[in-house]
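WP5 quarterly update. Target: HEAT repeat domain-containing protein. Source organism: Lysobacter yananisis. Length: 208 aa.
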Amino acid sequence: MTDLSIETTRFREWAGAGIVPREGQWECDYSQWPAWHRAVLAWVQGRHPRGWSDAEVGHVLYAIARDNDAQYLVREIRRLRPGTLRFLARASLAHGEIDARWQLAVELGHLSGDEEAQALLFALASDQDEYVRRRATRSLAGLGVRAAEELAWAAWHRPDEYQEWARMSALECLRELQSPRFEALLAEGLRDERPFLRQFAERLQNAR
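Structure tokens (predicted):
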């Protein structure tokens, strides 16, 4: 077995032993993160992803998903191997967890001028999960991609249980893109009865 497989299995056994309840940031209680980090990054740096098996791809995506609090692995992979980051993002569209997909969306937003990264972000912006869509749209806006304006507009008007948070993100995207739609939605946000959205809109207004 490789170190990647050993360390991933070790975490799975710890997580499956009922040591901690699966609530909040339960992964933070794992004491062997440094060894798992080393194993994943050594694997990523030592082998081209085209040679990875499906199981090995799954190990890396699983590690990224469990590292969702620190987000160390995904940042290091982007820094060390941006091509591998793109590969993992493609793989995550088929079988990655939500907690892997949104982190990959964030890091793809640092690959300025990368057409493949933008294409992957558009795919993630259509994800079934609202938080993945939100982070992908924010990354596109951060890259200055004008089409993010339509995505943010759609998110503002999409009714779902996370609409308050989606609208805050949409405002931030439209502000960053200097969209002519920003003022109208900011005015709506300032009148909104939901406290977090209204307070967020007030902060944006006061920051100008």
